[in-house]
Amino acid sequence: MQPEAQVLLRExxxxxxAALSHxxxxxxxxxxxxxxxxxxxxLSRRAGPSSEPESEQVARILSxxxxxxxxxxxxxxxxxxxxxxxxxxxxxxxxxxxxFRGMGxxxxxxGGQILALAVAxxxxxxxxxxxxxxxxxxxxxxxxxxxxxxxxxxxNGLRTGGIAVARLGRWGARxxxxxxxxxxxxxxxxxxxxxxxxxxxRWALRAAALAAVAxxxxxxFAVAGxxxxxxxxxxxxxxxxxxxxxxxxxxxxxxxxxxxxxxxxAEFVRMGSTVLVTMLxxxxxxxxxxxxxxxxxxRPRGGVSEH
Length: 307
Known about the structure:
Elements: H1 3-19, H2 25-45, H3 54-63, H4 68-77, H5 85-156, H6 158-229, H7 231-256, H8 262-306
């Protein structure tokens, strides 16, 4: 689809979502997808040479829906006026799914940044190694002249041979010192790259933790503010949620354990309590192990900084 046609389609869907702002989220998404699929379907059926620009074709197809506001009113008239608990639970579930998708995208973005930093560190290390190799080649080029002079002086006698050996030793010492300096520089660059990568990982993890805590705090404050404004509505929501959960659990028990006798059900209760205690113990042990590991990882860094 050409850019002009894409702009027309995106603008129509934007106005349609704005007109459906009071509708559930899945209704807005489905309406936009329906419009887009209809336009693409009509364009694909008309595939072939045409003198009319594609943007005008898309505009004519969209005019069949009417204005976005009129189409939104037609969709809203088909929705039930009274909300129910199941639709509310579905909206909450979709919002939670969107939240986890956003957290996944955030994790991918942070992983990309960390990977980019690691690649930059590897590139810096490669540059250092290339510089070291260039220094060694330069040292080799510098040593060619002393070697040729040593061969000439060896033919002229012991005295000139001794002088050549002395000069060769000086050139070799210079080349060795140059190689050592270049190796140290390459090692320093590698250490700097590793430290930058480690710091980036730490800061990324801290930023993710702070974002999660801040989001949880904002959600708690939002719920508290709404509860302060309308405590009766909040209580009704909690009551409806508890009622819905109780109905779901009753239905689940009816399909699973209701057909067993009382003794078997009591055995199921004991087994479930054992699983609960075991999982809590495993979780607490894991958290303690992570805290201990983090403490041991911080100790060597503190010792190095003291020196």
